[in-house]
Amino acid sequence: MLKSVLVAIDGTDAALSGLALARRLAQRHGAKLTGLAVVDVPFITAPEATPIGGSYYKAHKDADLVKRADEQARTMLAVFDADCRRDGVASTALEREGDPYEHLLGLVDVHDLVVIGRDTSFHSVASDAVTATVNRLLKDNPRPIVVTPAASSVSDVTVVAYDGSIPSMRALQMLALLGIALSGQTHIVTVRDDERDASAIAQRAQAFLQLYGIAAEAHPIGTARHAADVLVERARDLKAGLLAMGAFGHRGWRELLLGSATSRLLDSAATALFVHH
Amino acid sequence: MRRRLSGMMAAIALAVVLMVPELGFAAETDAHGVDGRQLGLIWAAPFVGILLSIALGPLLAPHFWEHHYGKIAAGWALAFLLPFAAVFGLTMAMQQLLHTLLLEYIPFIVLIFALFTVAGGIVVRGAFSGTPGSNTAILAVGAAAASWMGTTGASMVLIRPLIQANRWRRNAVHVFVFFIFLVSNMGGLLTPLGDPPLFLGFLLGVDFTWTLTRLIPHWLVMIVPLLAIFYVLDTIRIRGDGAPPTVPPTPLGLGGGINVVLLLAVIAATLMSANWRPGMGVSVMHIDVALQNIVRDVLLIAIALLSYRLTPAEAHEANEFSFGPIKEVAKLFIGIFITIAPVIAMLAAGREGALSGLVALSTQADGSPSNAMYFWLTGFLSSFLDNAPTYLVFFQLAGGDPARLMGELATTLAAISCGAVFMGANSYIGNAPNFMVKAVCESRGIRMPSFFGYCAWAVVFLVPLYAVVTWLFFLR
After folding, report:
1. What's this model's pTM, rounded to 2 decimal places?
2. Which of A17, B54, B202, B235 is deepest in the core (most CB within 10 A)?
3. Does B435 sit within 8 Å of A54, measured CB to CB?
């Protein structure tokens, strides 16, 4: 049961896409939604080399930027409040000053799920890369997290990337427990070198989801291609609104050689990623 | 009350000691008469210390630095003065201090204060759209104005209208980078008012018109190609920004116009001190301060105060004018000027001084100065340290005789001047207005390049031109 969602409020397209998804999830599940905007004061006021006579300008620039960030946060939170009221979502808007990761971490323990834009840094600056805040949250966070790209599709289709590994088992269970996959179609995609192996693994996931009343369709795929590329293509073909997977499960030679499937998906997927480990 | 009283007593005591030297001390040598041959490298430690403090303090201990930089500068000054008094006597230390204050520091700070105050009251009004043509024109005007109102003044007056004009653009960072190159640095080469190191040269005896008559070719070799490169770059980058908005034609004009008159008065006062030779002055502990210089400094202070009083509040608000930067400059430069004295004495000792290695490095086999080396060494240090003390060091390294430096060693003085002025553009910390422009841009939401990102712009666009300047002027 999804009872509470924490969403990061930032000005980028990816963050706005995350906000829309979080609001939809909260509305559908009757969950409480907390919107967090952070004025990243340590970042804004970070030390920098100044010439003689420059300290004055630096102090004023820092003050201007903190003020601007504060105004922007207030504006975004006001819009968040209004949107939640319009959609009938119970919400709390929070503004904090300081290190964004620390503030997120200080709130995750009282929420079931964190939703954050792929490039969220709380600086309202769009980026092609996954930000350090999101990466830290993916690594050190007890709750499942949904990471959204800039233009994620709005759909009730959930694709579960399942390879039989322990992280993917955890992610599957969490998805089922929270009931996120209940309201639309669910597909299980298993990518292995051998299709028969893939089929056996996918069927086990299918059977597990049936326990929660979720009728999932299995897609066993036998291929030597990188799993991440296949998953991106399949998620696109199925018009997925959410792609669920375990994260950072293996650290073996294969990942060193090919790169983590999760990292590749974070970089390239046009679908929101549900990650739990 | 007690503190004020004790402060007054101390001031009176100091005045008595300063004005009636016979009461306390007997002059042992000429003022500023430290024999550099007697000084070991350790005497340069306070100078190195204050430069490192200025460079690293804001990075390593920003809050401590912000609140205590004045005390740190005073600490380094005392780290030189107290041991110096102990070794060479109180009289020599006092003379050293007075020489620095009366002949170098006070005139230097007074001019910077006057230019900063007057320029800070001038506001460009009106609106224009940031296109390659108008941007290039503003950069050209700024580069020309910088020599007459100072690089800081020109930057302060023009950066806000330029930001406003380019607000509609998505790819305008290069406009502000080139503004730093041209207006905040290169433009200031032509007069002693343009850049503080050149004013130091003027105080040391370089003619007011020497830079104007001698350095125009160097100025043109940097300014013209940079403007051309900028125009091409801006023409390319504007393509991704869409059509410029239609700006209702608003005639350009000036707010705080009285300051233009006062700026002319600053120039006149400085020229007066260069040309009027009454042969009178005041002698304090054998330090002779010429009457024309006293009159100039008094006039400059009066002009600054007049400007502050007559400038409309809206003009100051539009420029976000504050005396904060000047206070910082005043506090740090007193430390620099005091601690640089032994370094200058060591350099004056030439091959017999502790800095003979530096002398050898900048001298060719036939004993003549290596002008290319002067250009690049002055420039390299000016890229990351303040260019005023750097200029002073190399001026002294080249002999420190203004008549000789304007005569047979004119190319060397040109190399030092060009190195100090041009290469201040190489980093955000090379020259004060560089950082001011960066800060003003960022305050308005413009994402300026990082420290090293900016240096990369300088390497790509400036270093090739430095090579051309070296080849044209300093290799022959």
Report:
1. 0.80
2. B54
3. yes
